[in-house]
Amino acid sequence: EKAPALIVAEWVQGKPSSIEPGKVILIEVFQVNCPGCFLGGFPEVIDLHNKYKDKGLVVWGLATAFEDFDKNNLDNLKRLLGNGEVVGETLAYLDSRDMLSEGRLQYKIPFPVAWDSVVSRNAEASDQEVDGIISRDIEDVDSLPPASMEKIRQQVRGWLKQKKYDSNTFDLYKLRGTPSTILIDKRGCLRYKLFGFGQGLEGYVKKLLGE
């Protein structure tokens, strides 16, 4: 399928960008309060950016928020990009492993970064939304017993009830968490969505660049 356009509130770093055919596009989706994003996600993607930026690869970052909204916000994103300042669990985790320099990241994010469109929720969770989340996150969901399905539906409804905001691009791409990597081919088609890091991302990039 054609990759849907990103729904962003602001390009915080770099020039505003849009999906256009001709290049392979890698979008690294992260949260500011996400240790794994900075431990493995960004180092992996920055390495690919440096190796393939002159060979047809375009890399963007997309900061989003689906939890910890007091930390995963636009102000903290601007601090991160401005001077490497990290917060919350990211700060605690990296600091405990001596991976910060005077409390700041030891590397810079060298590509454009956008802030997702994060908007207040003002509607009750619909059956369609609940079932969409379940099918997104649970494999072979149709094989579950009815009692298990109902318990899961109740859990998802409870989570949505306390959820204060929706993140439009994160939801549009049906992502499961952060870090996530979106890969779009030269035709502008969505080809891969990877959750986590260390999954052979370079192989996927080389495959798309070679097409």
Topology:
Elements: E1 8-13, E2 24-30, H1 35-52, E3 57-63, H2 74-83, H3 88-96, E4 100-101, E5 104-105, E6 113-116, E7 118-120, H4 127-137, H5 146-162, E8 165-167, H6 168-172, E9 180-184, E10 190-195, H7 201-209
Parallel strand pairs: 2-3, 3-6
Antiparallel strand pairs: 1-6, 2-9, 4-5, 7-8, 9-10
Helix pairs in contact: 1-3, 4-5
Write out key terms for the chains shown.
211 residues; alpha+beta; six-stranded mixed beta sheet; two-stranded antiparallel sheet; 7 helices; 10 strands; globular
How would you describe this protein?
This protein is of the alpha+beta class. The chain is globular and about 50 Å long. The strands form 3 sheets. The protein has a 6-stranded mixed sheet. The model has no long low-confidence stretch (mean pLDDT 93). The longest helix has 18 residues, at 35-52. It has helices spanning 35-52, 74-83, 88-96, 127-137, 146-162, 168-172, 201-209; strands at residues 8-13, 24-30, 57-63, 100-101, 104-105, 113-116, 118-120, 165-167, 180-184, 190-195. Helix 4 crosses helix 5.
Strand residues, percent: 15-25%
What's the gyration radius in Å?
18 Å
Alpha-carbon distance between the two ends = 17 Å
Shape descriptor reads: globular
Short overview:
The protein is α+β, with helices and mostly antiparallel strands and 211 residues long.
